[in-house]
Each structure stands twice: as C-alpha cells, then as structure tokens.
Amino acid sequence: MPTIERGSSSEDFLKSLGFPTLAVHDTFTHFDFTTPGRRVLLIGPMGSGKTEFAARVWRDAAVAQTKSEAVKQLTSTGEVDRRNIFFIRSEIDGERFTDYPEDALAYRNGYIRCGENIARIRDSFGLERVIADNPEVGTYIIDEASFFDERLAYVVRNASLEKGCMFIFPTLVLNFRREFFNNTARLMLDIATDVIPLTAYCEHPDCMDAAFYTYRYYSVEGQECPALFFDPLIVVGGDQIKQSAAEPNYAARCDRHHYLPGKEYTFFTLKPLGEAASRGDAAALVREVEALHGDLKRSQLYQNLLSRYGDDEKGEMYMASLLPGLIAEKALCYLFCEQNLISEALLTKLVFDLELDIPYMEKTLAANRRPVTFDQPFLL
Question: Theoretical Cys-Cys bridge with 107: which of 46, 52, 312, 333, CB 3.0 to 4.6 Å?
C-alpha cells in the first residue's frame, strides 16, 4: 500500500526551543532523493499546486546536485542519479501554457526551464524511448499521467524496480465527474509507493472550504453553466478563463458547490438508447439526438432536468447546463468513445444527417483516443 507523506519531528524541535503547547503542523520538507524506486503520486483538484510542487522538487534537485561525491553515492543506483530530473508532458496537452518557453516546466503563475531534460510523448512507448535515451536520469516527473495509456503504469514500475529510478506524477486521479479518471489512474494508485494529497480553496465566491474535486463549467454570456455528466472525458485547452460555449473552464470545488447535472439521464436514458442501437435498433437514439440538436425542449434530457431540478433552489444553475450547446455532439462522443455502443458508421451518418459540428467532433474524438475523420457519410 502507498504511504501518505507526513512530517514527524517539527513538534519535538519546537518544544526543545521552549515553545508552549500549541497546534504544530507538518513541515514542508525538502524532497528525498536517497530512496530508490519511489513512485510518488501528487493528487488534488485543478489549481491545487501539483505541478508547482513538482517544480519545487526540481529546485531541490538543483541544490542537491551541488553536494559532494558522498551525497551522489546516496542518491544513485548504478548509473542513474535521482538528482538528475527529466520532465515529461503529453503531446495532447500542447495548448496549455502557450505563453511560456518550449522547455518550461510551467505551472500557474510561474515556470522553470528544463533545458534538454524535457519531452512531449504520446504514449508509454514514448516513455520507454526517453528512459533508454537518458541512462543517467534518475527521476522522471510525468505531468498528468492519466492522459496516457494504462501500460504506462507497468513501464514505470519495471524501471523503478530494475534501475532504481524515481517517478513523480502530478496528476488528476478523479475526473470532473468525481469518478476515477480512467484505468490508468486506477493502476497508478496500484503501483504507487507514496501519495501526497493537495487541496485548494473552493473557488466558489461564497466559500472557503477545502476543495477536493475538479469542477468543469462553461461560461455563456457571463453565466456559469455546469458541464453535463456525459461531457467528453478529455477536453484539452489553456488555463485562461474562456467565454465559450465549446471550451470549458475548470475550478476547484467542494462537495456543496460541485454541480453535476445529467448523471441520472446518462444511465437511465442515454446509455440504454446506445445499447439498443448496438443491437441494431437505433431509431429511439436517432430521435433523441435529433431533439438534442434541433429542439432541445422536446428531448428526454430537458424533461429529466426539468422534473429533477425545476423546483430546486439551485434549479437555475442545473438548467443552465443546457446553454452551451453541442449537446448532441457530446452525447455521441460519450456513446462512441467511452461506452463503445455505437458504430463509426452510425456516428458518421448522424454527423452528416444532422449537420453536426465536424471540427468539434474530430478534435474531441482525437483527444479521447478514438480519432475519426469525417470525409463522407457511410451508407447504412
């Protein structure tokens, strides 16, 4: 089982200086490069400082590299030295931090330049190539590891056991639905040796509670519009606040202020319609997608939200989830990418028959690892 990193000696130290009895919190210690094979998860919502923590590890390594040969013996296993750090980011994450240098380990409000010790990779095979090409590197910081294929977890585990490398993962474990991000996230927890949880203030303007969840919302004419449960799992973009019906924003939120409309509809209506389509009966799904695209109030989604939240004090917030649009596109992406319930042929036919937003669909499907190029409709 992974351990939760905590300080241990602060209270005794302060007592020795004559401090009175008071609440003593854990120290913010310098990073340990002496223990081989660690696999450290930095978990928390968007904005909790995961990548900034990783940048602090990089700065600690720079200090540790100034130490003597005796220290090198402590931080090395064979030819790898854990004070040598390499930063890795996903290729699909290229739209974030576009204002920073190409070699930047960038976080909100700052960055550290990594020089040649930085790479963007597409998958776990790319990680294997980076490890093979850098035999003296002993610590790898892999940003947003959940974006990668699940094989990554075993590549990491093998390299840590065989070479003594350390891996640090500033990553989301939960997605905006408050579920495990994906199978990769589950496997990262399975192989982790250490977990460092980070929180943030809830970003709701009326709240100061600790936030554990990442909340996704759209901003339409200044109004906050929560993402529907079946919104695409991966939507990559910059960190700037966007006034857009197509590009979401993210915030750290507590339980009370994390709104997630459409979950009941997804499992009571949308998924069963997809299952029927997978058995060859797509008529009901086609009718619902047509309504989602062209006559929203006629859709089962609208009726579900109205009956569930219409009289709720937060009903206006939940109903605002319908304002951003592209709902038919999102529903089809969910059924095709995540549930694998509709065929590419049916997907393509609906896209052309209903004149759905092809650039949005292609970008979203590619980001969620089910790329489709809509050149011409299939004939069913």
Answer: 52
**Tokens at 211, concatenated:** 């936030």
* Rounded alpha-carbon distances, angstroms, from residue 1 to 188, 192, 204, 369: 12, 8, 34, 31
Strand-pairing partners, residue 166, are: 139
Distance CA 131, CA 156 (A): 10
Helix/strand/coil for 288: helix
d(CA 99, CA 104): 10
Half-sphere exposure of 320 (CA within 13 A, CB side): 16
Token output for 247: 């590009």
Distinct helix (H) and strand (E) counts, the chain: 14, 15
Residue with tokens 């056991």: 161
Hey, what amino acid is at 137? V
What is the pTM (predicted TM-score) of this model?
0.79
**Of all residues in the chain, what percent carry a pLDDT higher than 90?**
63
User: pLDDT value at position 55?
Assistant: 87
What local confidence, expressed as pLDDT, does residue 335 receive?
A: 98
Closest CA to 141 of 172, 112, 170: 170
Residue 166: left (phi > 0), alpha (psi -120 to 50), or beta? beta
Residues 101, 106, 110, 114: is their CA dihedral positive or negative? negative
Q: Which residue has 């904005």 as its token pair?
A: 47
Provide the pLDDT for residue 115: 79
The larger pLDDT score, comparing residue 90 to residue 333, is at 333
Which has more pLDDT, 181 or 168?
168
